[in-house]
Amino acid sequence: MRVLVRLRIHSPSQHQMDSCRFQNIPTNPLAKELPAVDIFVTTADTVLEPPIMTVNTVLSAMAVDYPGHKLACYVSDDGCSPIILYSLIEAAKFGHLWIPFCKKYDVQVRAPFRYFSGDVVFPPSSDDDNKSSGFHLEWRRMKDEYEKVRQKIEEAANGTVQIECSGEYAAFSTNTNKSDHPSIIKVIWENKEKVPEGMPHLIYVSREKRPHCPHHYKAGAMNVLTRVSGVMTNAPFMLNVDCDMFVNNPKIVLHAMCSFLGLKPQECAFIQFPQAFYNQVKDDPFGTQSVTIGLEMYGRGMAGIQGPFYAGTGCFHRRKLIYGFSLDNQDVQGKEDDEKILKESFGNSMEFINSLTQSLKDDISPIQDVSSAAQVSSQVAHCVYEHGTAWGIKVGWGYGTLTEGVQTGLRIHRKGLKSISCIPDPPGFLGTTPTSGLSLRFFLRYGLSARAWWNNQRMARIHSATSILFGVLSFLFELLGISEVVFEVTKKDQSDNSSDHDQDTNHKDDTSNNNVGRFTFDESPMFIPVTTFLFVHLTALALSLFGQHDEVGLGEFLSSVWTVLCFWPFVRVLFGKGKYGIPSSIVLKSAGFALIFVQLYRMASVG
Ligand SMILES: O=c1ccn([C@@H]2O[C@H](COP(=O)(O)OP(=O)(O)O[C@H]3O[C@H](CO)[C@@H](O)[C@H](O)[C@H]3O)[C@@H](O)[C@H]2O)c(=O)[nH]1
Ligand SMILES: [Mn+2]
């Protein structure tokens, strides 16, 4: 396995993005030839994924340099929360100011929280004075407006302001809870007049969920988005991002379309932008940088073979390939109009089948107006819609795995098609995620500190004793039929590294800087193994240093020192308080386990 992984890096290649004929939107007359793109954003939990983060992702995606009437942004809310709908309605109001502002001043980072964080430099001040003073006024106004929206959304999210479940929100009232509710689809904004300068369509989607109906986590959500967008806008291309990944480069859609239109289709089945992170802490204490490096290294290696894997986010797809077809329709030749056959695979909605035949014929004319499709779209978002069809098997995002992205990408590669890794400067998307595992040499080569490498080594050990251990256990439990593997949504921390959200009220959390890069804990059993190992090794060290055990070998001693060093972040907070300390229940349980282990060992060695 390791050999196979290493082999990948020996075929480096990189896709060159040529300057494309679609420059200077919107003055370029060719702009009308640009294809439509449906953008999917997934969110699932308003606590783990703060709505303001989702809103920033949505705003950054809607504000890209692309004709507004050719974009539609679909937000899937698996948490079925009126707070998300409310946040998006507020976001749309702000978007009407924000998007023109971004385009007028060629703002580089169009996620407002980042733009106003203070880390991001202003656009050139070399503009003539009039313009730049106008700019400063507008900038101030925009910041104030964003601040208001942020506050409203945060108040709704933390419950200080309750959302009345009536009117627009009536659908949420009838005993809805996130795992038992009808489908709720709301067109928040429709660019009815189809104006290029206008704001893209914005649609809220919460698919139906019922306790007896498996929902297949993110893959299920993506398949619903695929169908809903099929009957609403049916764009030939789609982009999907997780809610914590904002668009960092406003030319991203243009870049992708230049590649799709400029290359042979079989050379460019999908376009993956590597994952990069914005909230890097000095020396990378959580080892996230390795994901970026890893993706870059392996990504380039894979590019030399058949192209990168589909990572699940930050990726543009061809709708047709997601439907499981090949580029030349060979697999459906002669059956394109056979309703019965299509319904067997794709389900019973006639409207959806019509949109699908349209995609098959590469006919990209928009079907109808978005709002009038709302009724039909709620039908394709029903939880029983997929029963007996090929969704999740041969069609759409694959089920039965927690890495639905990789699987879906491989299904496309299996057709012999290539994918492309697109690495623009600045990076296309920025998000938040932790992972691990590369050599010191690579770290130094990529300009990272030895400290960062050490943090990464350490994180790899901590991962092995926490998430990987639990992953293996839950997989075994599933194999034995004891329990089912579930997709647990990861908690996102939206640290914008900014000194404030409002510079005027000098109100800073003076401890916040000290806490950057610190581990947070809760009562999850996930922390027990590490803490137990730690106690065992601390006991071993104590016994060998002060104790009666003189037969301790040097190797054993060093191994214990190494383990303790790796778990040092845990040692420091063993008796800490609050979220930065290990809860005493975890400490007690672990101490108990360690004691049992040491006792058993002693009995065994005496015996
Ligand atoms: O039932 C669910 C569970 C998750 N999500 C969304 O899925 C995305 C990814 O979830 P997250 O908890 O952030 O998982 P990660 O492990 O961070 O995700 C990585 O790994 C996943 C599995 O391969 C990929 O799908 C992701 O794109 C990739 O970023 C988020 O937008 C969630 O809101 C849903 O929509 N419904
Ligand atoms: Mn994530």
TrEMBL record:
Where does the UniProt annotation locate this protein? Answer: Endomembrane system
| Topology with respect to the bilayer | Multi-pass membrane protein
One MF term from GO for this chain? cellulose synthase (UDP-forming) activity
Q: Which residues form a coiled coil?
A: none
Q: Disordered: where is this region?
A: 494-514
For this protein, the record's Pfam families field holds: Cellulose_synt
Q: Which residues hold Mn(2+)?
A: 218, 242
- Write down the InterPro entries for this protein, in alphabetical order: Cellulose_synth (IPR005150), Nucleotide-diphossugar_trans (IPR029044)
GO terms under cellular component: endomembrane system; membrane
Q: Which GO terms describe its biological process?
A: cell wall organization; cellulose biosynthetic process
Basic and acidic residues bias (residue ranges): 494-511
Q: Where does UDP-alpha-D-glucose bind?
A: 49, 78
- Keywords, ordered alphabetically: Cell wall biogenesis/degradation, Glycosyltransferase, Membrane, Transferase, Transmembrane, Transmembrane helix
Gene3D superfamilies linked: Spore Coat Polysaccharide Biosynthesis Protein SpsA, Chain A
Ranges that cross the membrane: 468-487, 526-545, 557-575, 581-601
Annotated protein name in UniProt: Cellulose synthase-like protein H1
Q: Give the source species.
A: Morus notabilis
Q: What is the lineage of its organism?
A: Eukaryota, Viridiplantae, Streptophyta, Embryophyta, Tracheophyta
